Amino acid sequence: MAARPDITAWCPPVEGIEEVFHAHFIDHSYPMHTHDAWTLLIVDEGMVRYDLDHHEHGVLSHVVTLLPPHIPHNGGAATAEGFRKRVLYLNTAQVDERLIGMAVDSPVLHDPALRRRIARLHTTLSRPGDELEAASRLALVAERLDQHLRNRLEPVRYVHDHRVAHRLRDLLDERFVAGITLQEAAQRLHAHHTHLVRAFNREFGMAPHQYVTGRRVDLARRLLLQGLPGPEVATSAGFYDQSHLARHFKRVVGTSPGHYARTRGPLAPAAGREATGAPASPARRLPARRAGDRPTAR
Asked: Are 55 and 103 in contact (CB under 8 A)?
């Protein structure tokens, strides 16, 4: 009897990603088939063998594989132990279809840094509410894939664009509760989304999604001290749900929202006062980076 596969699949609310697919297969083999999206594959355990355009390839755990759309391929385990893989199906806006021929010739990419970025993107996509972070990570992954296919690998660029970085900060301040997608921000500011991420990081030492999370946690702290219940705080501060609030709150503040709320002193305002879903006082603004400071790791 064939072993039952362990599969998880979902369509995340992140522009550019059609589907996320995680699977552990022991004895399943894919027949020849095609996709209308780019297949970005990493293997965590075992080894996969496949045929692409009449050539045999193998996927090991330390490489990245990019299979182009519309090109037939198959696949299966190369060993009796099977394989565990994670796949992103990227639409053709993320990788230029004119590069399909390059991907057919070189579908295997030896790039440990890119593989780590893809793994972190998968982790982010598994957490509802972190779509801005996922979009930022996707932008950098797509940029690196494009460089590989064009044989134009470049070192990480520390982009200096003070004007667009400050304009993006202003936009994030306006929308940190309701949220804004990276693509919408790029359209509003007339800049490429990858450029926005790099310029913001260079100017302020943190990624846009980290800034938004900090603003939301600050608001959640004030609402908790006003006595609002956790579910209302999560919604009012822009978090997906209570668990989303709790995860980020504990990472930033060092304790849970519930414990923080129990620290309320006798002078804390009554529940409902100033609880409007936006900070009552002017936002604490990020200072620009000083000359010579290094960007933070992404």
From this structure: no
Annotate 91-116 with DSSP letters as a single string.
-TTTS-GGGHHHHHH--EE--HHHHH
**Contact, 249 vs 260, CB < 8 A?**
yes
H or E segment and range at residue 245: helix 242-253
Distances (CA, A) of 114 to 59, 60, 117, 146, 156: 15, 15, 5, 12, 12
DSSP secondary structure letters along 191-244: S-HHHHHHHHHHHHSS-HHHHHHHHHHHHHHHHHHTT--HHHHHHHTT-SSHHH
Q: What are 193-222's pLDDT values in tens digits? A: 999 999 999 999 999 999 999 999 999 999
Report yes or no: 56 and 92 within 8 Å, Cβ to Cβ.
no
Residues 203 and 291 sit within 8 Å (Cβ to Cβ):
no
The radius of gyration of the chain from alpha carbons, rounded to an integer in Å, stands at 22
Give tens-digit pLDDT for 31-41.
999 999 999 99
Give the phi and the psi of residue 98 in degrees, each rounded to 5. Answer: -65, -10
The two three-digit tokens of residue 283, written as one number = 């936002």
Is 150 within 8 Å of 96 (Cβ atoms)? no
Provide the whole-model pTM. Answer: 0.86
